[in-house]
Write a structure and sequence with these properties.
Chain A: It is a lipid-anchor. The structure holds 2 protein chains of 2 kinds. By secondary structure, chain A is α/β, with parallel strands linked by helices. Chain A has one domain (about 5-165): P-loop containing nucleotide triphosphate hydrolases (Rossmann fold, 3-Layer(aba) Sandwich). Chain A is built from 5 helices and 6 strands; from the N terminus they run E-H-E-E-H-E-H-E-H-E-H. Chain A has helices at about 20-25, 70-75, 90-105, 130-140, 155-165, and strands spanning about 1-10, 40-50, 50-60, 80-85, 110-120, 145. Chain B contains 42 helices and 12 strands. The longest helix of chain B is centred in the C-terminal third of the chain and has 35 residues, at about 650-685. Classes of the chains: A alpha/beta, B alpha+beta.
């Protein structure tokens, strides 16, 4: 099976649970075949998708305002961006909108955007209505899901949705800027990407 | 050691009958085989004249020399009583022959049809190696025999991480040559063994092979190919018949002399062509593994080889030899049914010869061979003996550990005189390097096997003692250490034993393959000061000392079981990569090659003219570009001989080339680049600013750097990190630098997590990294990071190394602009702009951007109807509006009526006037960040004029049109 490396960038305010989501995603069903990374800011996980394997290279970003200017470096070249907000903090949803805008302006053209409303388990102090967030996501054709990293709710699903939105390799036009290694099934053409 | 001529006559060609064996057990069987052989060898060596024992030697020789197919047409025709030089020259193994002539059979780009065309007229067994476009794999295309419906079949080659193997076979090889050489001897999963074209298999000298090789694919059409075959057509026919008869035929062929018969090799010859020395030992493996296959395919050691420099040819396959062989075979494999001599089969199968006893040592003084001026030549000179230590050499050393009194002198003696007549040793020949390569797998195997068999041997000695009448175990062992390693020449004795004593014990513990001391150093876990020093000489004394001391434990270790052996084998599989890298870097120093010229010229140019670059960035990008170009040159040109595809599995090639580039380009240039980067920083004032900001940042508390909650490293830890950074700056390889950066990051994580037990994401890590970098107060880190970012293999940029490099760069730029940060946010937009640019460049791999691609510069052209175009690079702040830019333009271009001018953005199709409140830098950044950057230009001109034509041949995105 072909392995594709997909860079995924995590954006969102500090404290919304970006790394918790990824830690949950990576640590559940721990795969011993994957060499562990040195820390939680950069994590990888390989999931099967169709006849391919998607290896997510997950780049976490610092959510503080002072690091905002570094974000382009992190999302550049990403196949997908997960923008996380905290359903109990309206501010974090406003920040999310800014990120969406920035990605539209400066992000990679075909980037898959996923919006994750985290802390779904704290429904009683919710500040961002599901409906509003969902409508916003639809308006920008983004994936939308509410998650709970703490209870492991919808975390797997989030990445499955992303996986499904990644165009299969055969259809993808020359996209050699993306970094994926191809160990191709026999009949395909032998384009090698870096 | 003395051998009667009857010894040499002994045929080792007992046919090994198939027996059912589990392939998985083959490794262990191999060990058993070795142990039997050792005892056989021992007996043979000690009791030279004893008939019952000599037969055992035959068996051993047959196996040990597995791949030394030697043509003996010459022996038969030319006469055996040559001077001794001829016989030396003639000694080429299958591997040699394959390596010399790969241009004939290694035709990677050959299509199915063309392969068929070539193979159709050839005899069965003829083969080509090519890359099947259908399978997207390398295949061995084999001419089938007439009993099968197809004329040609493709057998795919599996390339796993470091090895080549046939699909369906469990036996892997370090490179394609070894795989093919093996298949020439053993069919493994093939229907029969591969057969070298006659012209290759009977060639007497490397120059004969060169002649063949020169023809390349044309060989198959050439007279050389056809003449050979027609001249021996009678024989071929006979072979075919014999093939059908298979091992049933026991009669001796009257034409024996015509067949390629095998020259035996004395241990000295094993020495001199060390690259083969190891390979021959694989033979027992397949003897065991494939015995289960039809007898037709098993390899029969053929014995017809006269000793190199003396004995007259004698009739082959005499009835007297067969029983003896059978004896040995039976002894080796109690469950093996054996049939005697299958001359017919062996003749058509290029059977392995045996090494003769070391009686034919050339002990005349030999003129030292030419040395080229490269340091590597010295290495090879000195290292050669080590690599060459074959089984016998090892035996010598292993055995000598039992019997100190008789062990050879251990002090280092002068390099071994190599016979100048031996063509392979001429350093100027390209294949000299090839021969230096050898496979650690085999060495390792041998080493383990020898150790293991020693254990068995000591047990067996007791049992054998009265029956055989041979001397007691210990005495025998000591005898062997002398007799197997020395004959009548003292020189030889030294050359033989020295390496063995030095290397053999260490092989068991540490699979070093053929890596040079320097490379070993580089792999070292301890990235100390000496790590990348040019240690191109002998190993330091302490090393060999260590090895000597381990010698005593060979026996104990040998008993540790099979698992260890297997893992040892895997370790040693790392070697081919190093071999390839070393070859490339040797070639890079050889100005006789185009590649060598390019590299050397570039290196010396940069050393002398580092000032020609406009900035450090410019320098690094040119360097990166050069490395990338050299990589693709090596891939596309045929200058690498053998082609790298034959040494390295396809998915590894890029990595290996990258490492090789680091070694041959970055290593010599590192000091220059470092100094140049520093100069640029000092000149631009960045250095001063950086130092000030670092000093300021250092005074800040963790919280002020954005650290929230996590525990910062204490001064001791900071000191440790500084030390790691110091080591990092000593590396030339960006990859190794990055791996040290990763260690620093790991350490930071560990400290954070130790104090809290929770996992930290970027929200916590990046501020902490910034704090740590500030505390380290090492302004030189800035250029280090620049070096890594610009030179790292682009394919690594998305991985973990790329992530932390990005983080370090980000943290560093925050520190660099620490003062300004609080005041305004200009910095961050600046940084951001830079980052945009950087990532676009590195991921798009476009041509080198010019300075105006970056930061605060904007190149604007003035177009005036009268005077054509003038372009200027203006300093424009990232958030400057078009209106402001227009002001600057008016000033710079000295435009008298600024009101009638405006700033336009030109692309290939469109011209648009920019509104006064837009931001040209932002527009530029956006254009640059598009996946396919089209050429675009900022033009300052009169509003009415719309007739500007823009040439589209600009490579650089925002460069200015050249106006006539």
């Amino acid at each position: 099976m072909a392995i594709r490396e997909l860079k995924v960038c995590l954006l969102g305010d500090t404290g919304v649970g970006k790394s918790s989501i990824v830690c949950r995603f990576v640590q559940d069903h721990f795969d011993h075949n994957i060499s562990p990374t040195i820390g939680a800011s950069f994590l990888t996980k390989t999931v099967p998708c169709g006849n391919e394997l998607h290896k997510f290279l997950i780049w976490d970003t610092a959510g503080q305002e002072r690091f905002h200017s570094l974000a382009p470096m992190y999302y550049r070249g990403s196949a997908a961006a997960v923008i996380v907000y905290d359903i109990t903090k309206l501010d974090s949803f406003q920040t999310l909108k800014k990120w969406v805008k920035e990605l539209k302006e400066h992000g990679p053209e075909d980037i898959v955007v996923a919006i994750a409303g985290n802390k779904n388990d704290l429904g009683d102090i919710r500040e961002v209505p599901t409906k509003e967030a969902k409508e916003f996501a639809e308006s920008i054709a983004a994936i939308f899901i509410e998650t709970s990293a703490r209870n492991a709710v919808n975390v797997e699903e989030l990445f499955q949705k992303i996986s499904r939105q990644i165009p299969p390799l055969e259809n993808a036009e020359v996209d050699s800027n993306e970094s994926f290694k191809i160990t191709r099934p026999p009949p395909a053409s032998s384009r090698r990407c870096c | 050691m003395q051998h009667s001529s009857s010894d040499t006559k002994m045929a080792a060609d007992a046919l090994v009958q198939p027996c059912q064996m589990d392939r998985s057990g083959s490794f262990f069987k191999l060990i058993d085989t070795f142990s039997t052989e050792i005892s056989e060898l021992k007996q043979e060596m000690v009791q030279t004249a004893r008939e019952p024992d000599t037969k055992l030697l035959q068996g051993l020789e047959g196996e040990v020399s597995g791949l030394f197919l030697q043509s003996s047409v010459c022996t038969g025709a030319v006469g055996v009583r040559d001077s001794g030089y001829d016989s030396l020259r003639r000694r080429m193994s299958v591997l040699d022959r394959l390596t010399h002539t790969h241009s004939v059979w290694l035709l990677l780009s050959l299509s199915d049809e063309d392969a068929k065309c070539i193979l159709q007229p050839q005899p069965p067994g003829t083969f080509l190696v090519r890359r099947s476009s259908k399978l997207q794999k390398k295949v061995i295309s084999l001419r089938m025999d007439d009993s099968t419906p197809v004329t040609m079949r493709d057998f795919p080659v599996k390339e796993s991480q470091y090895t080549f193997s046939l699909e369906g076979s469990g036996i892997s090889f370090a490179d394609l040559f070894r795989l093919v050489a093996f298949c020439c001897i053993s069919r493994d999963v093939l229907p029969f063994t591969l057969k070298l074209p006659e012209a290759i298999s009977v060639a007497k000298t490397p120059s004969d092979l060169e002649e063949v090789a020169k023809l390349g694919i044309g060989f198959w059409e050439s007279d050389l190919c056809h003449k050979r075959r027609s001249s021996v057509s009678a024989r071929t026919a006979q072979d075919n018949t014999q093939q059908k008869l298979k091992q049933k035929s026991q009669e001796t062929s009257p034409k024996e002399e015509v067949h390629p018969i095998l020259c035996t090799r004395s241990p000295s010859q094993l020495e001199f062509s060390q690259s083969n020395g190891a390979l021959c030992f694989i033979n027992p493996l397949f003897l065991q593994t494939h015995r289960s296959d039809t007898a037709q395919t098993s390899v029969t050691p053929d014995d017809k080889t006269p000793l190199p420099d003396s004995i007259s040819p004698f009739p082959q396959g005499t009835s007297s030899t067969s029983p003896q062989n059978s004896g040995s075979i039976l002894r080796r494999n109690s469950n093996t049914k054996y049939t005697t001599n299958s001359r017919a089969k062996s003749a058509s199968r290029s059977p392995p010869p045996r090494p003769p006893p070391p009686r034919t040592v050339p002990h005349r003084p030999v003129p030292p061979r030419k040395q080229n001026s490269m340091p590597s030549a010295v290495v090879s000179w000195i290292k050669t003996p080590q690599e060459k230590s074959g089984l016998l050499g090892r035996l010598g050393s292993s055995f000598s550990s039992f019997s100190p009194p008789s062990s050879p002198p251990k002090k280092i003696s002068s390099p071994i005189p190599t016979p100048s007549s031996h063509p392979k040793r001429t350093p100027s020949q390209p294949d000299a390097e090839v021969h230096r390569c050898h496979l650690a797998l085999e060495d390792q195997t041998i080493e383990e096997a020898v150790s293991f068999s020693l254990a068995k041997l000591s047990l067996r000695n007791t049992a054998l003692e009265d029956g055989s009448g041979s001397p007691a175990g210990r005495e025998r062992l000591s005898d062997i250490s002398i007799s197997s390693t020395s004959s009548d020449s003292l020189d030889f004795n030294h050359s033989f034993l020295l390496p063995a004593a030095g290397t053999s014990p260490s092989r068991t513990g540490r699979a070093v393959g053929d890596s040079s001391p320097e490379e070993e150093e580089e792999e070292d876990e301890d990235y100390g000061v000496s790590v990348e020093s040019d240690q191109e000489s002998m190993e330091p004394p302490f090393k060999s000392k260590k090895r000597h001391s381990t010698g005593a434990f060979v026996l104990r270790r040998a008993l540790k079981g099979h698992l260890r052996k297997v893992s040892g084998v895997f370790n040693s599989l790392m070697t081919p990569e190093k071999r390839a890298i070393r070859r490339i870097s040797e070639q890079s120093r050889d100005k006789n090659t185009y590649f060598g010229c390019l590299v050397q010229d570039y290196v010396s140019f940069l050393q002398e003219n580092r000032g020609c670059h406009t900035s450090g960035l410019d320098l690094l990008q040119t360097l990166r570009q050069f490395m990338t170009q050299m990589k693709s040159y090596l891939l596309q040109s045929s200058e690498l001989d053998p082609p790298i595809e034959s040494l390295i599995p396809e998915d590894q090639i890029d990595q290996v080339l990258e490492k090789a580039m680091h070694k041959c380009i970055l290593k010599p240039l590192k000091p220059v680049v470092e100094a140049a980067l520093h100069d640029f920083q000092v000149r631009s004032g960045t250095w001063q600013q950086l130092k000030e900001n670092l000093a300021l940042a250092k005074t800040k508390q963790p919280a002020e750097m954005g650290v929230d909650g996590a525990m910062p490293p204490d001064p001791v830890a900071i000191e440790k990190i500084r030390h790691k950074f110091h080591n990092m700056s000593k590396m030339y390889s960006p990859e190794k630098k990055v791996s040290l950066l990763l260690r620093v990051c790991k350490l930071i994580y560990t400290i954070m997590e130790d104090n809290s037990g929770r996992m930290y994401g970027a929200d916590d890590f990046l501020p902490m990294l910034t704090y740590v970098l500030a505390q380290c107060d090492m302004p030189q880190l800035d250029t280090e990071i620049q070096y890594m970012m610009e030179l790292l293999d682009p394919s690594l940029l998305h991985g973990e190394g790329g992530y932390y490099l990005t983080s370090a760069y980000g943290a560093m730029s925050l520190i660099k602009n620490f003062q300004e940060e609080q005041a305004a946010r200009v910095l961050s937009s600046e940084t951001r702009n830079t980052l945009h640019q950087w990532h676009r460049r590195r991921t798009a791999q476009r041509t080198v951007p010019s300075v105006d691609d970056f930061q605060n510069y904007l190149r604007v052209a003035l177009q005036e109807p009268g005077s054509g175009c003038t372009a200027k690079t203006l300093q424009v702040r990232p958030y400057a509006t078009t209106e402001e830019v227009c002001h600057i333009c008016a000033e710079k271009f000295k435009v008298s009526d600024p009101d009638s001018h405006a700033l336009f953005l030109l692309t290939e199709e469109t011209t648009q006037q920019l509104a006064p409140d837009t931001h040209p830098q932002k527009i530029k950044a956006e254009l640059h960040s598009r996946p396919q950057v089209q050429p675009f230009y900022f033009v300052y001109r009169r509003i009415q004029n719309l007739n500007l034509t823009v040439p589209t041949d600009q490579l650089n995105g925002n460069s200015v049109p050249k106006c006539a």
